[in-house]
């Protein structure tokens, strides 16, 4: 494999990873934690969508606009439509710059957009929205957002809506996490080992078995993705290789295999509860010596041969 | 054993004897068959509605759920006026399939449908229904299925032969459209003309509730109120509750509600354990059941119980529904790699069967049912060699290795196997009974009384003796 081919293969794999994340459309849930942050992956996805020519809307709630835009070059920055909910979410300064109605209204405005064409909506972050909006409203709005194309009637694959939501796992209990996982079409959980980030991706195609894959990656300063092979392997202390386990079939005191004759004998054996014709005959016409059956009994140490019934004493 | 076998043949023969007798007119006792009278619709008291049949146990009117195997497990079918609750599997792959089977059965038998969903448009749901298998083209598929099954079930059991007497699950048979349950081909869509010929009503929540509505907290969520009103209107207008006496032909209304209890319906129960609308879903189910009991309708509901945080709500929802079926898929769980389950896609649990006009339940004896989604069919089967698995649990670990060997001298039916089994079980019971035995006699109350301690000693007839050998503390 020549180096250039390797690079081409590598770039293809990088593109594949981002494309596969965006392929299914709908809601892409990025679950991150304090150790492995997800905003850089979110920005990488935004950059990819912008380069593909989609409209990109960003609902920024957690970081300021300047901080979010830093790292993007100017042509990408010009394509991003930023809705700022960070500076003045409750509209206290009353300058009229912020969106009236707060985050819910902003989401609903995105639902009602009339521009045709594929669009990517990035929610930074879903955790902030969960804390400020009633959960059922948020779920219903997310569902409407991610299924806009089907509502419109024309569902060509180029007209897909991508909703990228960043969710901080540690802030929420199992309930919200479970609900948002069930709503999402693609779910990316960020984790890692030894300084190397990994993404565990779960694809939920409708009415098909979900598939998952794990990808080790790192994000470069210009928000392009670089795939890694895996964490640098450290020699881990393994337990001493055990004595090779004994084959239990050796040194047996009984027979483990049957010879042909033995098998025939076994198959022809009538089991005691099987009602064969000989038994029927034996029962129907009791033969000699079978008239009475004898019971041989030897009393042992615990036997109480007292014929007196102890219940006679009862005064009932 | 053999006596039982002769008995069953005996009943068949008495039936034929009676029939022979009536033919010969030897006796004046005429056996009245179920279809002895000529026309059934005229002189029978039961209204015969297409797609229904009375239960053989208590005469309750039943409709088919769309899966004849499931009908068999539920005791013949779903009773009219009851709710079938499906507990969804984790990734929601198989429960929509049961939902669609129910609706497809309604279309094929000509029932009216009411589909309610907060996620998908009901028109889209109807487009994805499976196509019914009709007489001509299903014969070759059924034949190959039966052939596959016959080759698997050739294992004769010698010691556990009673397990062979377990009733077999119904195999796919060619059906006619007048039969009670139909078979469907999951890989094909239902033909468009069948959908157009059927009567259906859809309730798609985002259309019915405007998003700018200011939701005041109330005990029953607004979506549920709207849905109940919708169902009530349909029942009243179309006369399913008998309020429209001009209707000549009675019909059944099949209601299907998808994903009830998820936040898309405006319900909080999947979100937190203690929420304001804790009782919303239970109130809805109570009112729904009231509506159903007073009308000719049957309802299927799928609920994502794996997402509900409060276990008490799951219990309440189960109690408020009549028939409860739980689906557990193996995807992502450790059972996926279990060799026992390698042929199946998940387990199906029949959690509850209603006691309608009955004193006793009709619960099936078999607890281990698994389902498999083949390319065309959704099948439900008993997990094979289940008893062997249970036996392995009581045997010491090394022994199960021997049991697994084919042709081993320790296999099924061998003398070594049975003697080992007997002595092992004897020792196990001796050990267990040693722990149960009281070592001291009970407190004496009163003058006379029982002098001996409670225990196996008292349970022998005749002079008080201990059974020799078995129940003595092993040295």
From TrEMBL, chain A:
Q: Per its UniProt entry, which superkingdom is the organism in?
A: Eukaryota
Q: Identify the species of origin.
A: Monodon monoceros (Narwhal)
Q: Name one GO molecular function term.
A: tRNA binding
Give any Gene Ontology cellular component: elongator holoenzyme complex
User: What InterPro entries does the annotation carry?
Assistant: Elp5
**Name of this protein:** Elongator complex protein 5
Which Pfam families does the entry link to? Elong_Iki1
Per UniProt, subcellular location reads as: Cytoplasm; Nucleus
Q: Which family is it part of?
A: Belongs to the ELP5 family.
GO process annotations (BP):
positive regulation of cell migration; tRNA wobble uridine modification
Record's keyword annotation contains DNA-binding: no
Keywords, in A-Z order: Cytoplasm, Nucleus, tRNA processing
**Which pathway does it operate in?**
tRNA modification; 5-methoxycarbonylmethyl-2-thiouridine-tRNA biosynthesis
UniProtKB/TrEMBL annotation, chain B:
Pathway-wise, it operates in: tRNA modification; 5-methoxycarbonylmethyl-2-thiouridine-tRNA biosynthesis
Q: Name one Pfam family in it.
A: PAXNEB
Keywords per UniProt: Cytoplasm, Nucleus, tRNA processing
Annotated GO biological processes are:
regulation of transcription by RNA polymerase II; tRNA wobble uridine modification
GO CC, any one term: transcription elongation factor complex
Spell out the InterPro entries in the cross-references.
Elongator_complex_protein_4 (IPR008728), P-loop_NTPase (IPR027417)
Region span, Disordered: 443-475
Q: Which domain of life is it from?
A: Eukaryota
Cell compartments where the protein resides? Cytoplasm; Nucleus
* Functional description taken from the UniProt entry: Component of the elongator complex which is required for multiple tRNA modifications, including mcm5U (5-methoxycarbonylmethyl uridine), mcm5s2U (5-methoxycarbonylmethyl-2-thiouridine), and ncm5U (5-carbamoylmethyl uridine). The elongator complex catalyzes the formation of carboxymethyluridine in the wobble base at position 34 in tRNAs.
The record's family statement is: Belongs to the ELP4 family.
Subunit note: Component of the elongator complex which consists of ELP1, ELP2, ELP3, ELP4, ELP5 and ELP6.
Name it. Elongator complex protein 4
Q: Which organism is it from?
A: Monodon monoceros (Narwhal)
Its ancestry begins with: Eukaryota, Metazoa, Chordata, Craniata, Vertebrata
Protein's gene = ELP4
């Amino acid at each position: 494999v020549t180096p250039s081919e390797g690079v081409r293969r590598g770039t293809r794999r990088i593109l594949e990873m981002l494309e596969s994340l965006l392929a299914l459309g709908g809601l892409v849930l990025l679950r991150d934690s304090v150790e492995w942050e997800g905003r850089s992956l979110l920005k990488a996805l935004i950059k990819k969508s912008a380069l593909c020519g989609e409209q990109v809307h960003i609902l920024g709630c957690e970081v300021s606009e300047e901080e979010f835009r830093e790292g993007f070059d100017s042509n990408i920055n010009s394509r991003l439509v930023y809705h700022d909910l960070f500076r003045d979410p409750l509209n206290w300064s009353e300058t009229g710059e912020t969106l009236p109605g707060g985050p819910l209204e902003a989401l609903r405005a995105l639902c009602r957009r009339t521009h045709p064409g594929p669009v990517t909506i990035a929610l930074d972050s879903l955790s902030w929205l969960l804390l400020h909006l009633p959960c059922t409203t948020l779920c219903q709005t997310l569902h409407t957002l991610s299924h806009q194309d089907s509502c419109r009637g024309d569902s060509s694959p180029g007209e897909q809506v991508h909703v990228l939501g960043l969710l901080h796992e540690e802030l929420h209990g199992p309930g919200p996490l479970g609900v948002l996982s069930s709503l999402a079409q693609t779910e990316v959980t960020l984790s890692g080992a030894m300084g190397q980030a990994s993404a565990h991706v779960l694809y939920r195609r409708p009415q098909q078995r979900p598939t998952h894959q794990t990808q080790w990656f790192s994000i470069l300063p210009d928000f392009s993705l670089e795939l890694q092979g895996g964490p640098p392997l450290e020699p881990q202390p393994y337990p001493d290789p055990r004595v090779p386990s004994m084959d239990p079939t050796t040194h047996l005191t009984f027979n483990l295999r049957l010879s042909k004759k033995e098998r025939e004998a076994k198959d022809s054996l009538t089991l005691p509860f099987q009602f064969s014709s000989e038994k029927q005959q034996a029962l129907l016409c009791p033969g000699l010596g079978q008239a009475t059956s004898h019971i041989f009994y030897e009393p042992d140490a615990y036997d109480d041969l007292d014929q007196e019934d102890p219940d006679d004493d009862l005064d009932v | 054993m053999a006596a039982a076998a002769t008995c069953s043949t005996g009943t068949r023969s008495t039936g034929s004897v009676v029939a022979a007798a009536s033919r010969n007119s030897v006796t004046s006792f005429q056996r009245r068959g179920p279809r002895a009278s000529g026309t059934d619709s005229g002189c029978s008291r039961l209204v015969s509605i297409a797609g229904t049949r009375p239960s053989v146990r208590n005469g309750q009117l039943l409709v088919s759920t769309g899966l004849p195997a499931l009908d068999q497990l539920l005791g013949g079918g779903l009773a009219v006026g009851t709710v079938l609750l499906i507990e969804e599997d984790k990734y929601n792959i198989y429960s929509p399939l049961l939902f669609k089977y129910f609706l497809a059965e309604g279309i094929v038998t000509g029932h009216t449908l009411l589909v309610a969903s907060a996620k998908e448009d009901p028109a889209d749901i109807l487009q994805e229904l499976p196509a019914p298998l009709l007489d001509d083209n299903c014969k070759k598929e059924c034949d190959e299925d039966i052939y596959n099954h016959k080759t698997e079930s050739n294992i004769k059991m010698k010691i556990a032969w009673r397990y062979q007497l377990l009733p077999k699950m119904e195999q796919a048979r060619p059906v006619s459209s007048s039969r009670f349950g139909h078979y469907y081909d999951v890989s094909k869509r239902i033909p468009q003309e069948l959908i157009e010929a059927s009567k259906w009503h859809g309730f798609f929540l985002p259309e019915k509730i405007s998003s700018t509505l200011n939701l005041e907290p109330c005990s029953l969520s607004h979506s549920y109120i709207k849905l109940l009103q919708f169902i009530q209107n349909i029942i009243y207008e179309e006369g399913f509750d008998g309020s429209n006496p001009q209707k000549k032909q009675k019909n059944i209304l099949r209601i299907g509600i998808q994903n009830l209890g998820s936040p898309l319906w405006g319900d909080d129960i999947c979100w937190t354990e203690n929420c304001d609308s804790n009782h919303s879903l239970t109130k809805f189910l109570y009112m729904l059941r009231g509506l159903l009991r007073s009308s000719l309708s049957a309802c299927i509901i799928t609920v994502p119980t794996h997402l509900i945080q409060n276990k008490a709500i799951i219990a309440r929802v189960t109690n408020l529904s009549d028939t409860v079926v739980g689906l557990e898929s193996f995807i992502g769980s450790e059972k996926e790699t279990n060799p026992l389950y390698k042929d199946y896609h998940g387990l199906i649990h029949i959690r509850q069967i209603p006691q309608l006009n009955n004193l006793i339940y009709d619960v099936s004896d078999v607890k281990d049912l698994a389902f498999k989604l083949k390319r065309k069919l959704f099948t439900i089967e008993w997990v094979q060699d289940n008893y062997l698995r249970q036996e392995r649990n009581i045997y010491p670990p090394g022994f199960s290795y021997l049991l697994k060997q084919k042709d081993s001298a320790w296999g099924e039916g061998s003398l070594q196997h049975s003697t080992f089994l007997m002595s092992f079980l004897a020792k196990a019971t001796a050990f267990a009974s040693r722990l149960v035995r009281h070592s001291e006699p009970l407190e004496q109350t009163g003058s006379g009384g029982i002098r001996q301690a409670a225990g196996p000693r008292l349970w022998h007839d005749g002079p008080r003796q201990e059974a020799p050998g078995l129940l003595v503390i092993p040295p």
